Amino acid sequence: METRWVNQKDINRADWDNLVGKTEDSSIYVSSFYLDATAIEWEAYVADDFSFAIPVGVVRKGGITRVYPPLFQRYIEPIGDISKINWNAFEKSLLKRFPKGDLQAKSAILPNTPFTNYIHQVVDKERFKLKTQAKRMIKRFGQTNYEIREENINTEELSKLIAKELSKKLPLYGTKDVQHLFEVVKKAEEKGLLYKVGVFEGDILKGGLIGLKFNGQLLYLKGTALENLQQDGAMYALMNHFINHGLSQNCTIDFGGSRVEGIQFFNQRFSGEDVDYYNYTWDGSPLWFKLLFSLYRKIKG
To answer: Which domain of life, per UniProt (predicted)?
Structure first.
């Protein structure tokens, strides 16, 4: 099977999304709109007959184009007829084209490159059960005057509230990079894939969750509530509402994934089960680039 690398600007979005739609269990992360919204640039390893493709986020700095994991994109995955892919050939081509890389993948796709396992959590209707702490916090929330509802939520207001609150602990959300998140939300809403639920005090929005519904999954994208509401169980009540909505739509719930132990613990209070994905890192870049990149990382922080 002949293959080639194609830059995103030369990829027909309708053809790409049609291939995504034909792929069993494909995630929203490889939809063209999601790749466009999150990646600085992306390319794909494509079969000449377009029977399969593998996208990767790329960025060019210091004269070297390298693979990188775009913000708000957990992993990439192959699309199309996976059985036709020669994984050794893909790995050889990837490492030759991109001398440096950090690639997160849904499955083990590089036969000879070392990897680290990461995890995210999912739950379905059969496994969903509230643990004791979740029950306790939801009960506490029920004793407040706050209200959870899906109606009359301004998407831009909720997105900016989430970014503002998260930036207090995660500086990223106070930088221009958060625009990638806003773009995902905007495009998802245009395509009818957005789900949102808010917590209100009267008519005042105090927090909420944003999810993406795609291919039988409801993906938790981002969310938060004001600090005092969190202490009253707002996040537990919001997530419980989120999960029950997804299950009522026959969706599997994807908690979005985090390597932060506290978030993993929170997900597990809703019976979230661990699912592995794979992080590959390689560096065959020239010595001069390694030195420059090391200096850049030190200056940046």
So the answer is: Bacteria
